[in-house]
Amino acid sequence: MIKKTIILAVFLLTTYFIFVAIVIPQRQVKQHQWQGNKINAQNFIFSDSDTIKSVIVGSSLSARILTKELSGFYNLSFAGQSIFDGLNILSKKETIPKNVFIETNYLFRAEDPQFTGSLFDNYPFYSQTYILALRSGKEPLPMLISLLQDWKDKKENNKAENNTTISLPSVQHPLFDKLIAYQITNYSQKPDSLAMKNAMVNLKRYVDILKSKHINVIFFEMPVNSHLCELPLSQVPRQAIHKLFPQNTFSYIDQPDCTNYNTSDGVHLTNLESEKYTAYFQDKIACSFCTN
Hints:
Blueprint: H1 2-22, H2 33-45, E1 54-58, E2 73-77, H3 83-92, E3 99-103, H4 113-120, H5 122-130, H6 140-155, H7 159-162, H8 174-187, H9 193-212, E4 216-220, H10 232-244, E5 251-253, H11 271-284
Helix pairs in contact: 3-9
């Protein structure tokens, strides 16, 4: 009985591994934010595509950049996490895209060792390298539910309707005013000096690694609510970065006029504004440092 159970389990696992690899290699199911970040990271880590010429590392702010509109780009920004998670991943990858764009809005959020550790632990890393079905987002039950949902949508002939994104006009709401007031209070505080020093040391270490590999490093700052752009939590890091990485040596995409952008909570762009910033970003990268 035990032997038959083991044989059946091996058969089912093998069948699923083959099914995922051949039939649905691109399908992934995100169940929560942390898993979504892991899927994004693994897709980059295990990619051997030579079409990726540039990579963006950042926080949830730059995760909203629509890289599908940017030729040769991969967005290695993670919601709720640090730019240093993305930089750590880059430092471990053998081949790095020629251009690395680093968001500078949130420098004080520390790297998550649990997150990056889960990506490079020996056994999971090597098994996931060769077995697609073991990667995050490939779990059998969520995958089955996703496939059944697709089948149901097609049967009801409403899949296109379900996948349509409707952008509603921005509406001022009392809760939004409270969020902005909170952000103004937060941004009015100067960053902790020790946290600032540690962030700069860490950033320089990663930038030095990239420069040693002849990678172009470009810094950029996402737009936020216009009340926050010139407050200490924006200004102090901006000045520190410009001092540590002089503009006559490093390339920058300056923060655009924040009065031209709307946010959902003071710091995150709405869907429509993400499209607008992506167009701005695309216009700025049409210069010599990323076209070679």
